[in-house]
Amino acid sequence: MTSNPTRLGAIRNIEANEAPAAFFDADEKTGAIYGENVFSLSVMQKRLPKSVFKSVFATIQNGEKLDPAVADIVASAMKDWAMERGVTHYAHVFYPLTGLTAEKHDSFMEPVGDGTAVWEFSGKTLVQGEPDASSFPNGGIRATFEARGYTGWDVQSPAYILENPNGNTLCIPTIFVSMTGEALDHKTPLLRSQNAMSEQAKRVLALFGHEDIDNVVSYCGPEQEYFLVDTAFVNSRPDLLNAGRTLFGAKPPKGQEFDDHYFGAIPERVLGFMHDTERALFKLGVPAKTRHNEVAPGQFEIAPVFERANLASDHQQLIMSTFKSIAKTHGFQCLFHEKPFAGVNGSGKHVNFSFGNDNQGNFLNPGDNPHDNAQFLVFCAAVIRAVHLYGGLLRLSIASAGNDHRLGANEAPPAIISIFLGDQLQDVFEQIAKGGATSSKQKGVLSVGVDTLPDLTKDAGDRNRTSPMAFTGNRFEFRAAGSNQTVAAPMVVINTIMAEALDYLATELEAAVATGTEFNDAVQAVLAKVVEQHGAVVFNGNGYSEEWHAEAEQRGLKNLRTTVDALPEYQTPEAKKLFSTYGVFSEAELDSRFEVGVEQYVMTINVEANLTEEIARTTILPAAVRYQTELATNVASLKAAGVEADTTDLLTVTDLVTTLRSSIAALVAAQAGAGEHHGLEEAAYYRDAVLPAMLAVREAADALEAVVADDLWSLPTYQEMLFIR
């Protein structure tokens, strides 16, 4: 155990930690609480007139335009339902380009002239709100003196109640746009991209003979990874408090090399946190399904059931905010940074996605014989074309300063965007390229040699943990997304590039059929064309290998290693044409997102650089100098006593202190030079000059941590933060 009083105090706080008192009845039945705080379809059906419910249902299920005439009736029913549950305020909840959730609270109370008040909630208030648009990231769309912005009710994402001991709040998911109509959020382009993809998917489905086709949607099931660190440790780490990641920290004696944490028994204290979060999420209608230990010590994962992408995105934001608030009641801080600890697993948010609707099902379900499932093969070919043509945009959609530390290291895929199809689909598409697919590799039987166990079913293909875009049975998994980001960003790109690919395929098939080609022959021809033109993006091997990086370059695949490399993808002619063609982003909106991306990258690195200097100068250097003084005093005392003194440790520490001082000075100089650059050039400067200077400070500091006396080192160590629960 440490002998440093700061760290020792933190550990004793952990040892004394007690689970929070249960805030629910012991006899409460989990099944009965699911969705009880959601103004769901079933609630609306009970509370709304039949005609009004039918109108709202058509908007939610089929994407029909909302009838403004129903808003007052819905608002009144929503208010009555909410007030019965102790609600006094409502909030339009939106998702600005900060990546966080924003909300503006108002009371239902309306004063009247005689000193009393009434409780009102009008349809106009439900449908539209007005927050300040100039105080959120907007990339120049709104100036400080042009502050007006609007929120608009997203009917397809249900309102819900957030509980608080001091009063409950009705939360209404909304879009957020400027006064001139540009999207200032993540939800608006997600809804636009959904519409674009649906329109083109319906064309393909019509060619396959479907009639009365429902609105096509993308489905999303994001797996959320996160770390739990005791609050006492986090409060002693300015880097974790302000940057969400450790800027210093020597490698612990034991890390994740034994693989003993992955899927291990969940620690009791952590399990208590999970129980409370899941109960809160169930009440909000969030279908939390799976929980387990992840690879790194102190790392965990939650995975919800698939939902419509728009709802899944909103629920992801709820998961993150719920985790952070409930973690505090259990004495934890929940870390969503993509790389909070160097040398161990980073955290991703694997975006599993598919396309379909209630009537026609999942279009990425291959069935038992995918070679006979032409509709599936067309949709799968659309993914291949989309990823090959727009891999740079997919990389851009998950670009951040935090994710740069994760990609290509410890379980994360590389920055090269490729597709893993698996043995079965790879074989089918190879057959197509040669003239036509006639067979599919089948599932096998796995005998484990234990008499009491039945034979196990073996899939027709393996999985690939190194691929950024992997087919996993009935969906694709985009593994490159970072844990700290909204899933809306990658889903916007996925929907839009699928709209383009489905548009292309539908046009090719329609033209072929119009000239008398048999439909099946037309399908075979267009699939073969896709394989020929876009097969270079398919890679089933090891994405971590150096050989793949060289091969990917030969195949013409982009390797956008950093956010700075990826950001210009916003401004390519191809991107502007794509997003404008399908009505997802205007050129001004793309430019604004480029500006916001540059600004956020620069601000992130600048904050981290400031913290690096501050911690190194005020915490690490003083500890090292005190130890240097102790060693020097010891050497001097021994020499004065006529005893031969070993100066090895003193010289080692002295060299490291000198290195630390010079690296701090170099970091200060590097930061000072940033003012000479602007825009993307400034971001590149931070990447090429400031980040390496920060790393040099860290290297000296981490080397000192390994030799400075434990009682002088006040920063909680990796060993303590990762293993003490």
TrEMBL record:
What's the name of the protein? Glutamine synthetase III
Q: Where is the GS beta-grasp domain?
A: 88-181
One Pfam family for this entry, by name? Gln-synt_C
Pinpoint the GS catalytic domain residues: 197-620
Q: Which domain of life is it from?
A: Bacteria
Query: Mind telling me which InterPro entries this protein's record contains?
Result: Gln-synt_C, Gln_synt_N, Gln_synth_cat_dom, Gln_synth_gly_rich_site, GS_Type-3, GSIII_N
The family line of this record is: Belongs to the glutamine synthetase family.
Position of the signal peptide: none
